[in-house]
Design brief:
It contains two helices and seven strands. With about 120 residues, the chain is of the alpha+beta class.
Length: about 120
């Protein structure tokens, strides 16, 4: 897999938004890492120090105010993102995401996803 994304920089984008999200009632669970250097099936790790060659990083956000709202994102170092969500009982699915090539582009993407799922006007 090509190394398009620096996944540590992607995590920094989430970390930079965490306080604002907490104020808005959005909880960010532990970041999960997958190490491409480990044999299949690869475990998800929460300790970055145990991952020598990260090929993806995952985030789970959920609302403490809006019952059931949640967003799960997995960012792959190849530049693609999987995004699944539940905004409410009648609004759930997959968010179509473009290929990205920078942590800043991921920051813009996650802002859009958070605004969509948690009905925020200004997520940062």
């Amino acid at each position: 897999m090509d190394h398009v994304m620096d996944l540590d920089e992607v995590v920094a984008e989430v970390t930079a938004r965490r306080a604002a999200w907490q104020t808005a009632g959005i909880v960010v669970d532990s970041v999960t890492w997958r190490d491409s250097a480990t044999p299949w099936p690869q475990r998800l790790e929460t300790d970055r120090a145990t991952v020598s060659d990260p090929d993806s990083v995952g985030f789970h956000l959920h609302s403490s105010h809006k019952h059931g709202a949640e967003l799960r994102l997995v960012v792959f170092r190849g530049g693609w993102v999987d995004a699944d969500f539940i905004a409410d009982i009648d609004d759930a699915g997959v968010i179509s995401t473009p290929a990205i090539s920078s942590a800043e582009a991921f920051g813009t993407l996650i802002d859009t996803c958070v605004a969509r799922v948690f009905s925020l006007q200004d997520p940062t």
